[in-house]
TrEMBL record:
It comes from Shiella aurantiaca. This is CHASE2 domain-containing protein. SMART domains: CHASE2. The lineage of its organism: Bacteria, Pseudomonadati, Bacteroidota, Cytophagia, Cytophagales. Residues 44-330 form the CHASE2 domain. Keywords: Membrane, Transmembrane, Transmembrane helix. The chain crosses the membrane at residues 7-25, 317-336, 348-368, 374-395. InterPro entries: CHASE2. It holds the Pfam family CHASE2.
């Protein structure tokens, strides 16, 4: 049986046909807008989301080196006063996830510039703009206004999200540690802050050389939040103004300021994202994490050197082809020897195999912090059974003289 040359040739050509068919179907459905509601509900769910939301909510220890501060609805004068108060307690780094790209009144701008000048390591947000899909790069960086630049180090606050519109289903799982724009290298906001706090660990992180990194989320900031226990200490607007904290909370720490609602616990959707920690990972629900807390999770990942490694695109394609070929090979044996059982047996095998692959992906991710990208492989398994019937019933006959003769003479 295994010496049958036609078996090996058919398995290889049929596997190639499966991948060609998958590519065609993928191109077709990319432009079918009628499927958008389905895509919103389940198309942006990954196995790793289940691991984060169901298995890891109690595991990570709180990260006390990063202190979150809510700026609420304060204007620049209010933010400046917060910075002055916090700076009295000798933080190692202060960063702020807020945009200061436009001038306000001279009084507000000068007040904030003066507050920035007092801080030894002050980081504020910039923004990568003008993305070009052809070059996979950005054309410009929006920077803070000129009066602030002498006193701060900018870091871009962009995330890699699945949508640009806040009203759309917008999930953050990954980020770019740095990006080159017009020949100049720019660091992400969280990476810049981590670098100023611990340059050795940050350099080891950057030495991984990944253009995109998966965020290894440890949790949210508020104990009252329904998406997990508190993993970062957080101060509200009035906590800072009233100095309602012990000095040790701030001294030598990273203080990360940003919008977390008008008050801590505010259900506002402003600057808020869906993350893998969201307990309702399938179907539209409320976003669970403010952007500033996403930055805090990135900083924690760098300081703890607890990264997530990801299967490369090449490894994913090779693995998918091997999975597809193995299924095709044994499906051909079933097709030839158990024809009456073919449809039922192949469907059962495909279902069991897909479930086992999903379980494997979850176990490997949870145990080894390694993300197996086996989506193409699962698709190859799912397409194998029916595609093989098309291969034998249509493709192979079209390439045989006897088959073509039978088809074209059918009405004669």
């Amino acid at each position: 049986m295994f010496k049958d040359k036609s078996l090996w040739l058919d398995s290889i050509f049929a596997t190639l046909f499966v991948f060609l068919l998958m590519f065609g179907v993928q191109q077709l459905f990319v432009s079918v807008d009628v499927l958008d509601p389905i895509g919103d509900a389940v198309g942006d769910v990954e196995v790793t989301d289940v691991v984060f939301s169901q298995l890891r909510t109690q595991d990570p220890v709180p990260e006390e080196r990063v202190v979150l501060v809510n700026i609420g609805d304060l204007n620049r004068a209010g933010i400046a006063e917060q910075i002055r108060i916090l700076n009295k307690y000798s933080p190692k780094v202060i960063g702020i996830d807020a945009r200061f790209f436009k001038h306000k009144s001279p009084e507000l701008d000068s007040s904030l510039a003066e507050a920035f000048s007092r801080v030894e390591n002050m980081v504020i947000a910039s923004k990568l703009e003008g993305y070009d899909s052809l070059t996979d790069g950005f054309g410009n960086v929006a920077m803070p206004i000129e009066p602030f630049l002498p006193h701060v180090k900018p870091g871009f606050a962009n995330f890699i999200a699945t949508a640009e519109d806040q009203d759309q289903f917008k999930v953050v799982r990954t980020f770019s540690p740095s990006d080159e724009v017009k020949g100049e290298r720019h660091m992400a906001l969280a990476v810049m802050m981590a670098h100023l706090y611990d340059s050795a660990k940050t350099e080891r992180f950057l030495a991984r050389g990944n253009d995109v990194e998966v965020v290894n989320f440890i949790g949210n900031a508020l104990a009252s939040n329904s998406y997990g226990n508190a993993k970062f200490p957080a101060l509200d607007v009035e906590d800072v103004f009233n100095e309602n904290f012990v000095p040790e909370l701030i001294e030598g720490k990273i203080v990360l300021m940003g919008y977390m609602g008008s008050y801590l616990g505010d259900p506002s959707w402003d600057d808020k994202f869906f993350t893998p920690l969201n307990t309702q990972y399938a179907g539209r629900t409320n976003p669970d994490m403010f952007g500033v807390i996403v930055h805090a999770n990135i900083i924690a990942m760098i300081l703890n050197e607890n990264y997530i490694d990801t299967m490369s695109d090449l490894a994913e394609i090779i693995t998918a082809f091997i999975l597809g070929w193995i299924n095709i090979f044994f499906f051909i044996l079933i097709y030839r020897n158990l024809g009456r059982w073919y449809d039922g047996l192949t469907k059962v095998i495909q279902l069991v195999e897909a479930i086992l692959i999903l379980v494997l992906m979850g176990v490997v991710f949870n145990t080894f912090d390694y993300k197996l990208n086996l989506g193409i492989g699962i698709a190859a398994v799912a397409f194998a059974g029916d595609s093989l019937e098309i291969y034998f019933g249509v493709v192979k006959n079209l390439f045989s003289a006897e088959g073509r003769k039978e088809l074209f003479n059918i009405n004669r």
